[in-house]
Amino acid sequence: MINQRPKGTWFKSSRSEGSRACVEVCLDDEVVGVRDSKAPGGPELSFTGEQWDSFLDSGIWKR
Fold first, then answer.
1. Which residues, other chains included, contact 29 with Cβ-Cβ below 8 Å and sequence gap of 6+?
2. What's the DSSP call for residue 15?
3. What are phi and psi of 14, to 5 degrees?
4. Chain mean position to CA 52
5. What is the tens place of the pLDDT at every residue in 14-58?
6. Could you tell me the pTM of the whole model?
7. Cβ(32)–Cβ(46) below 8 Å
8. Between 20 and 30 A from 52 (CA), which of 34, 36, 39, 45?
9. In terms of C-beta density within 10 A (0-12 exposed, 13-18 middle, 19 or more buried), how is residue 10 classed?
10. Distance from C-alpha of 56 to C-alpha of 54, rounded to nearest angstrom
């Protein structure tokens, strides 16, 4: 993780529809942000694009 907040629009995951496991993602040129959509003012995680790509490539999010 990195210590920088993304600047942009937050988007709710399409996989979150109809469930209580809601995730939002914000992308900009330098940072990918992730947060709980039920708590938009709460904590956020920030990643570099490379870190985010590695996470997506891992497939762990499919479990």
1. none
2. G
3. -65, -25
4. 9
5. 766 666 678 899 988 889 999 988 888 889 999 999 999 999 899
6. 0.76
7. yes
8. 39
9. middle
10. 5
